Batch of 2 targets.
Target 1
Amino acid sequence: MAKKVSLLEDFTKGIWKENPILIALLGLCPTLAVTTSVENGIAMGLAVSFTLVCSSTIISLLRNIIPKQVRIASFIVIIATFVTIADRFLAAFYPEISKNLGPFIPLIIVNCIILGRQEAFASKNNVGRSILDACGMGLGFTLILIVLSTIRELLGSGTIMGFKIMWDSFSPWMVMILPPGAFLTLGLMIGASNWINDRRKRS
Amino acid sequence: MNLIVIFISAAIVNNFVLSQFLGICPFVGVSKRLDSAVSMGMAVTFVMTITAVVTWLIYHLLLVPYNLEILQYVSFILVIASLVQLVEMFIRKVSKPLYDSLGIFLPLITTNCAILGLALISVLRNYSFMESLIYSIGAGAGFTLALVIMAGIREELELADVPKQFQGAAITMIIAGSLALAFMGFAGLI
Amino acid sequence: MNTSAKMILVLTVISALSGGLLSYWDSFTSEKIEAYRQSEIQKAVQKVLPESDERKEIQQNGFTFYIGYKNGEITGISFVAEGGGFQDIISMMVGVTPDFSHITGLAILSQKETPGLGTKIDYDPSREGMETWFTDQFKGKKTGNLTYVKNQKPRSDSEIEAITGATISSNAVVTILNEKISAAKAAFESINE
């Protein structure tokens, strides 16, 4: 029974309790840069999740073979390989999205979430738990990206996924899709999540 | 003339941190104190410049002639990781005081997306050797500038009465937002 | 086996596997990527040289010219013009009359301008039915000394209307055109020499 609970915990902790963006503050660059539209946010979330799950699987399988001294170098090569695969896949099958995300797809390589999870989890745990952990973290990352990009697209362009949502006379808050809007929205979201956690602790 | 535009654009108008969102992690993590912000900025500028030179040579003399562009990401990140190691060893040998002030930041630089970002953007924009060199110095200067301004504000902020939930990362983000807004005012410069 | 030998072995094996996997993936995707790029170029050429029904490609001095013919006669010449925009390179397909005196069409190939402002050079969602008004207005304009005007209709055939709030992007397009059209003209004329 205890084991079952911990397996579920491996998965769910990434979504809220140890959320990579809100709590651990990892992977902020793509979070801020690509969330100008919901479509980009989802694509980025999926690309990161794909890389995370694949790298975690391989690295946890190889965890007893890779010598400690070349650990980071090996991780980086494995991660970069999967990122290249994801990048070429998008360029071949979803060229429009690939154009929008630009250099932020290859920059997944240095996304601290991925290297951080390898170092903290996949290199120490078995394959099953590592995959669960990676899925949870990937989902947590994607969800925050969706929330952030929904707020920014709705207020900044008056649309969601390109569909018009706001009333006709609504004039878009241009600043929301410009860089300052990204910082402000994320700052408010982090503050709000701290507030919710505080309330929970108190009650 | 073109080189000056590239420099100013990378350092101020399209500031790496505040408008391109590169290098946010160290921007949030190492901007608590002014002196460490200056050291981090210098370390990043240093590694950036060397990275720009080496990755340019690798891309144009090795990857393109042999049709190996698909290995671009793998080779770039390996180059950056080994460069950071080399620079660390070199500084330790040559100058002890420099190592003491920069040393602890160097390992963090490998995963600083500003470095890889710089190498990738130089390739995307098809910069010549000279252009990518100037671009890297400008980007480093811009990174240092953003970090130093942020650290200065955060030192003052310790005296301010920030709501508990917003202390730390949340208020840093909001200040960064205001700074980004201020930097947009430079837009007409180029 | 000692540690350093193992270290080197593991790294070599991992890199070799990664290289193998990637070269397989490259052969699988590169055709599709290239095909997409070609189709984008062809679509753009079609847009800027609407009257032609046959095309020829010529390379000269770094320019690739797509020459449009109708019934064996040259109707226009198009080429890619690139230059710095507000944030990043703006890349455009320009079509001109055979003597390079007038623009027959303009299409944006790629740009990374500010979303919602500078991106209007490519697509402006606020003008329903004429989202590409910015590039469309270049059709028929005289080359050589293009200028932009703000918040008013252009009065001469070398003036275009800038995008409100994105003067820098509008200016970038005009500057790139002025510069590249004359460079392309020189390159094109050197073909026959």
Target 2
Amino acid sequence: MSETGTPLANPRDLPVFAPGEPPRLLAEHLSYAYHPGRSAAPRFTLEPVSFRARRGELLMIVGPNASGKTTLLRLLSGLLRPLAGHVELDGVSLEKLDARTRAQRIAVVQQESPLVFPMSAVEYVLQGRYPYSRRLHFPSTDDLDLAMKSLEQVGGAHLAERWMHEISGGEKQRVVLARALAQQPLLLLLDEPTLHLDIGGQVELLRQLAALAANGRATIVVVTHELGLAAEFADQVVLMHRGRALGTGKPSEVFQETVLREVFAAPLRVEPGASGRPRIVLEVRTE
Amino acid sequence: MSPSKPLTSRKVIGVTLLLALLLLVVAVISLRLGAVSISTPQVGACLVEAATGNTAHMTADCRMIVLDLRLPRVLLALLVGASLSVAGAGFQALLRNPLADPYVLGVSSGAALGAILALLVQPRTTIGTMAAAFAGALLTVAAVYFLGRRHGHLDSFTLLLAGIITASFFSAIIMFLMASLPGRDLRGMAFWLMGDLSSPLPVRTGWLMLVAWMTIGGVYTTAADLNLLAAGEQEAEHLGVNVGRVKLVVYLAGSLLTALAVSVSGAIGYIGLLVPHVMRMLFGSDYRLLIPASALGGALALIIADTLARTVIAPTELPVGAMTAIAGAPVFIYLLRRKLG
């Protein structure tokens, strides 16, 4: 695949950075191994992966199921310690951040976990202010304003006073995103955010994320297996396959037909689309 | 029901004062009721005289019935009710399960078994009994926690089954031990199995109160963290919560509160389930309000239950655990069905 994708060890076309300014996100030779037992062979390994992203960039980690996408995201979140390598945010290694500071800089939107007790949407969003407040964390008027602003940003202002268990999956997704925005993060990580959305919802969410990245202060990293969405919206993609990063760079460089066919084991065709972005078509012929 | 506004400290203080006032009223009513009825002014005068140390004009009714018989029992109910409710609310967040409760999880039975074993070995040391009850509670929570896991995740129904089976196993051992003791004691058996507030306190209530309220205060320091924990463990970590520390605090405090309650009153059921649930319905599920509300509400509920237990079929007394089970079991079934449905 080195003929088609960008080789990992020496990426040719990385985003241009202002001289002297550290990149917003820097992942250097990140690797990880998951051992089910102490002496057992690792069940899953992530081979060293490196990439960098600028402020305001939308980076998408793409790959089939069990390719290591989520592991990579968890390494970026700082909750999972890499076996080797490190992650830097604005030049500061994540290992140097305490939990509270980390939560002020990195927000994570996960595949949803069910709520045990009823909670209103605005209460949920206010949790995003936790890393900024003192012990008992009663919200200030500023916190409330910010929570409402975050909800507005995702088009969910009307949901504020609704119960979380009474709103739809798509609406819930917005509220979860609003909570992450209320953290005012430098880095926003999303794990399969389009999983339970229909195609309209997926496009709307990606539009929102692209807009947030473009005019916000955050760099956004999205894990997804939706190739089409990545081709259309990502500034940069990292293509994962069996614990290896096959390529990093612009979608037009990384999404090569032969590689995608191999990785996704599906008859995919890559066409040059308008605006220079590749278009990925599923080609199933019945003989 | 539409959601309430985000919680303010003013609301916490307001609700806490309201419940404290209600607790005072119920306590006075409980002091009035019994085989001998005593009027409210008499109860009031009696309490004031006792508080000011002005015992010169104290009536016999005041000294013997109110101060010696009824007041210790009301105070004990207050202590046990508050402890069990806060332990329940804590376990519910810790295990992310609204049906968790020291009794349902078998923690009360574990504490009771620990206490009985200590009594068999060394009958006279109350501190030893309490320490053994604490050890029993800690071990039971740990055991149920690991038995309740399936495929590496805490499964709420496996957890409940593990708790219920652990409880019945420990109850059987308790019965076996009590029955084989010389001078079999049916009342003692009821005390450990059903919970009962009629036994005199082995140690000063003041000390127990101090330990219980300090432990409840310890749980309260984690209130904001518990809100996030209840919304998801990994998410709480992403938001900067030190999940390991919070879980340890709640695990230790919940076990200690259960052990305190059990070593003075046996295994009283359902208070830790019922009270936090009602408080959530009334005031929302925010732990910053839920913990003080559960503490006061638990005290309130157990004083009412015990007053009923000693008056409904007077002069015979029911174990208070029978009263709480009559009220609590149907609520448990209701919650279980709603969770399934």
